Amino acid sequence: MMSEWEPMRMNDRQQADVAKIAEALRNARGAVAFTGAGISTESGIPDFRSPGGVWSRYQPVMFQDFLADHDARVRYWRMKHEAYGAYATVRPNAGHDALARLEAAGRLVGVITQNIDGLHQAAGSRTVHELHGTDRHVACVACGKRFDAEPVHARVEAGEAVPECDGCGGWLKPATISFGQQLDPDVLSETIRLSREADVFLAIGSSLVVEPAASLPVHAKQAGAMLVIINRDTTPLDDIADVVIHAAISVVLPVIDDTK
Ligand code: ZN
Predict the structure, then answer these.
(1) If you measure from the C-alpha of residue 134 to the centroid of ligand 1, how many angstroms do you get, rounded to a whole number?
(2) Are residues 255 and 127 part of one domain?
(3) Would residue 219 show up in a list of annotated catalytic residues for this protein?
(4) Which residue of the set 132, 137, 153, 219 is catalytic?
(5) Whether residue 124 is found in the same domain as residue 251
(6) Residue 98 C-alpha to ligand 1 middle, in angstroms?
């Protein structure tokens, strides 16, 4: 699977585009990176939607069913526990590392991500807005108390089907946004604000079809940002972007990062 990504040398036009992006970031005051599944698949995180992925073997559990039905809770935790196992071996890749360095150098104000794997923080990014929550924490659906995911998954591994909150006895659930669950309105409004104030907006590894992913680059572009799309495949927003690079993220981002 990894062989799909390597080795891709950039052509002359892409090299020129990369130089243009690096220069824009040197002059930027509010550059924002927005990332989707593409950056994580290059770390070996399986795309759960793909054939054979976890989501194709388990029926998705709606948030309302998680609250209402014991069997749905058991099924959900079984699926999430299996998916969590992948994190034991995955590491941030050169793309995550480059974004962390750009932020440390003051060239990015932060990362907005659709990913729930925590790899940006693992790479050293400090300001990460997680639109779909995170698998690295679990939260009580009754009182909202949050816990590190690791010890809770250890309890599931030891046989607890649906772990309960030590504060109130409510059900714990990975701190991700489930089907049928609203995005966190505070996270959403903050990401819209950052997008509107961005002078450079990098959309990285997202197919840009699911909301709000599809709107954030549009907000940025309409407010005057330079819109850059870096993705393996074409996206519906390629036509409005200032620069589009179809190549592997872990190849392109380290070259854009000239802070070294
Ligand atoms: Zn609780």
Answers:
(1) 18
(2) yes
(3) no
(4) 132
(5) yes
(6) 38
Indicate the Cα dihedral angle 136, 141, 144, 148, nearest 10°. Answer: -20
Residues 82 and 119 reside in one and the same domain = no
**Structural domain containing residue 238:** 1-45+91-132+183-260
Beta strand 226-230 with 200-204: parallel, antiparallel or unpaired?
parallel
Do both 201 and 228 map to the same domain?
yes
Q: Is 149 helix (H, G, I), strand (E, B) or coil?
A: helix
Residues 84 and 95 in one domain: no
Reported as a single tens digit per residue, the pLDDT across 6-27 is 446 788 899 999 999 999 999 9
- Using alpha carbons only, what angle is made at residue 24 by residues 205 and 240, rounded to the nearest 5 degrees? 55
Q: What global pTM score does this model have?
A: 0.92
Instruction: For residue 18, report the distance from its CA to the centre of ligand 1, in Å.
Output: 48
